[in-house]
Here is the input.
Amino acid sequence: MITAKTPLFQKLVVIAALLTVSAAFSQQVLDRVVAIVDDDIILESQVVQSAYLMALQSGFDPTTNPVRFEAEFGRYKAATLENLINKKVFLIQAEKDTILADERQIDFHLQQQMQSIIQRLGGEEKVQEYFGMSMPKIRKNYREQIEEELRVAAVRDRKMADIKVSRREVEEYYRAFGDSLASIRETVDISHLLLTPEPGDDAVRDAKEKITKIKNQIEAGAEFAQMARENSEDPGSAERGGEIGFMSRGDFVREFEEAAFALQPNELSDIVRTQFGFHLIQMIERRGEKINVRHILIAPKPSQKDELEAVEKIRSIHQELLDGADFEEMVKIHSADESTRDRGGKLGVFEIDQLRETAKEFTYVLNGVEPGQVTEPVKTAFGYHILRLNSREEPRHLELEKDWERIETLALEKKIQNEFNKWLNEIKKTVYIEIKPENGS
Here is the structure.
């Protein structure tokens, strides 16, 4: 069930490596339609991928514990199928309410997700091997899911925005659930300032010069596909001569899409710059509102000089903070994290155990830091961070008066969930939903 605590977007993963059947057969099975919601479908592949994600979120990796995953696969599939059906229902509601996702937010989250997965798996080639698909296809899948989650969140937030709880409701909630509420583990409330190494002018100029030379060679008669195989830095499409496959509007980042859809068959684009680098695009074929194009990507990469400049800058910022500069003001000026920049870099409250699993670098630099102090700069997959410890809380049981705000939040979440479920069930009565049997077609 989608809840008020549902993450803004889910990570898309593929479990082909876990399947004991051949790749061709597994693809056949994964593409089976398992449910119809209104005029949309849900595929077995989507259910399997989400079941894999749910397992990861439950605390174990199916790739390292396939026996347990196989034993619990049915339960995960049932739960994830319900989630996917509910998401489709809310997307229908989003269409009715004309709720769209902000393109800048989509692009921002997409870039963060791709950087994270590339770093975690050790490069683009490893990512493609892990997912079993090309980088453009992976980006397309992530982009679609991010856009859907943003729209679902907007529908949920709009409907639930006016729900409140009274003091009496909070007290009744505590009397009913106080004994079963989890104890507070050791937690930290942290903010951060993020600095990401950016390709300098030299790196950008070198990339632009390289793709300009490639463009000149193609215009002089060189075959685009061969040039893509030899030069493109998108390994997912380079080996196919840069061919991406048929895509629709919304599948690409905006700059790429505008250039690609403006082309005629065999026409070569001008140099196009996106967040990923510089592209050359050639139209292969157009079928209605879908196009198949080739592209060559040359990406400016931060040089060692750029990395060193980022290190020097984060050290300089750190010293300014130690000298008394206002943390929130420095975040507004310098932080690359758009999602926290306008709220002083506030990341929120985290259990220490949770940080050890998800951001172990943070736990190291927070050790010995007192509330109100900033940490030494620390590097993660996203760049260089300076953390501020806003508060630290030792483990203990929840108490009504002492933890009023936290219990009030829990009571509100419970009330929102109840109202949310009622609303969801009412919406589902108006939507055609069919779940296919396991041996159905």
